[in-house]
Amino acid sequence: MQKLRGQLDEALVRYFGYPSFRPGQRELIEKLLQGKNVLGLLATGGGKSLIYQLPSLILPFLTLVVTPLISLMVDQVQKLRQQGRRDVAYVNSALNPEEVQQLLREIRSGRYKLLYVSPEKLKHPAVVAALRQRRVSLFAIDEAHCISQWGHDFRTDYLRLPSVVEAVGSPPVLALTATATAEVVEEICRLFHIHRDDLVKQSLNRPNIAYDIQKVDSEQEKREWLLHALAHLGGSGIVYCSTREAVEQVVRLCREAGIDNVHGYHGGMEAMERVLIQEQFLRNQLRLIVATNAFGMGVDKPDIRFVLHYHYPASLEAYVQEVGRIGRDGLPGYAGLVYWPGDTAIHQGLLRAESLSRADVEKFLQVVTGTASRTISFAQLHTELGIGETQMRALFFYAEQAGMVADVVLTKDGYVYHLGTGEQHIAAHRIAEELARVRQAKLEKLQAMEHWLEQTGCLRRAIAAYFGEQADGLTYDMYCCSHCGLDRSYYGRQTGAAARTMSDKEWDLEQVLGRLLGRRSGLESGGSL
DNA sequence: CGGGGTAGCTATACAGCTACCCCGGTGCCGTATT
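Above: the input entities. Below: the structure tokens describing the complete assembly.
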């Protein structure tokens, strides 16, 4: 063990240039090297990626990193390659089929030590076979809260990860996140057989963030509050809205008020435009981003001084993720939220829109079992079942769990599947129950968010309590929250880096995108990834 | 759930009201088409 510690210290200095580990890092790495499954609960900006990047240099075989977004994979691989690591790659839909084949050959040949992958790609038998053949030394899951946040409906492949771990030979598992309630911790530990003693948890309290919430009576008052806040805050920040349309409206509102260093961001925009906007924000060429919850994950900007919520998010977990982007440099930052009770309609409506009834489930099973071709086309989804692709994926997932479907593949014709041996009426019951349970859980998270808004105690302590933390001794005088006391004018005096003018080269769209996406010039040429 | 838009009525105001319908977020994947 003494020898191992020495090796770790040496590698830390040699490869990362840090003199010492940050809290939790060494403990997690040592447990992993002992072959244990671990969960790391570290505050945002706590140096999570080092926990798998460093072992990947020491371990004999492959370190696999499951990542929710392609942009995160591209970003990480690009950074590591710039640091001179040639044994790093990613597998996702940014690669064309030939590139994937080439990459799988290279994986089997042992060229890579660190591989980033989307959970969806891990469903492919060819990918799993290559990984098993090469052998996996470490199975890391970044942003592990996605398992609970998305795994139950939106991206069910997250819930398949435990069987993937087994399929690649049950290597040690590392789950990492900055946001997890006691229930989420429990679920991750259960899914990946993580022992209670192997949970490494730090306080998620962010003492440099001040919380301010304001209840108003109308949309007009919200707009006034927002403009007033923006006029008085210094530095760069994010405004979160719950709908794309609200994003556009708030951007217009800002511009009409003379704030023009601003841009909107949401999932309906072109991927390239989104990349460009994010990049400009990171470089302080944009001061303000108005966005839906699409914006933020992987945005590693240290000097975000404020996050404003024009709509509150659907859960406290989401809220903590969003405001957690403030002040990673450790300097003071401001989290402001304005709401009126009518805002709940957006969340209630989304919940209603995505919920499937028992009748929907039965109809789905009838169509699935009654189609001789064992195929459901995209057109059928809409005409016969009246549901979208996301719901369809969830239905297939739970149908598999209930034994009604043996496997599913997405092809040009739609979903092609094989039937299982389950009994239809039992399966329908189980699927409907499961969907109801997922919906109920979401509703409760929304209600917890709304309860937090309405309660009158310290906002910081209430967050800590929600995440099961002891909140004693959190006293920040006039820099805590709007319930304890808050000197708002203080945050106007804080200024971040001033916006500067871009050079012509930086404006070059191709330059920026080529650097960030690096698809065509990708793996085979090596350097430009 | 509830805001916003629209159709339709009233009954003589180029408006005003009501009733109704629609819509609302996150990203992989694979495929065909721009």
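Note for the figure: The radius of gyration of chain A is 24 Å.
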